[in-house]
Write a structure and sequence with these properties.
Elements lengths: L13 E4 L5 E5 L2 E5 L11 E4 L14 E3 L5 E5 L2 E5 L4 E4 L9 E7 L5 E7 L4 E7 L4 E5 H4 L7 E3 L5 E4 L10 E4 L4 E4 L12
Antiparallel strand pairs: 1-2, 2-3, 3-4, 5-6, 6-7, 7-8, 9-10, 10-11, 11-12, 13-14, 14-15, 15-16
Length: 196
Amino acid sequence: FTEQEGFAVPALHQITKTADGAIWATGDQGLARMDPEAEKLGNTVFRTFTGAEIGARFQNPDSFVPMADGSLWVKAEDGFVRYDGRNFRRFTPADGLGGSQPNRIAKSADGTLWFTSRDDARQLSFLTRYDGMNFVNFTNASTNLWYFQEMTPAPDGSLWIAHGWNAEATFGASRFDGKQFERLTTTNGLPDNKVR
């Protein structure tokens, strides 16, 4: 698929399928969506979203999560955005998110969403939990941890987090069981403390 089919997203990063059957792809210039009925109709045209539709910037949206209800959460340059099948809505610190500079999104098995973001001006990094109603924020200052980066939810409901902000960061990783954070380093068996 190329620009002739509406796929105006160079430097492809990720592809996923939402519960409604739509195919989504992210790249340097935004998002592309192929309607679930497209193949049945013999139409393989993608629709591209740049973020301008909602005043957001989808430049390099390299993190997104499909939900069971068919919606899609995606990282923008200036917040996290939810697409409900018809409309986009951007979420920022004004809505309860931690930082204005988003990093990653992850989803637990129970549908809980996790976001990492930062606020460089205040030298803060945030881990945010969202249950569909409320945002709960944890910071590097309040948890005595380093910057929150990549995340992987485990089947037992815990969350594994990498803290490597850059190549020099040697903080290791941590595990959050819903109540407390446990820092893990080479002393716990990690091969290296540079976990990104």
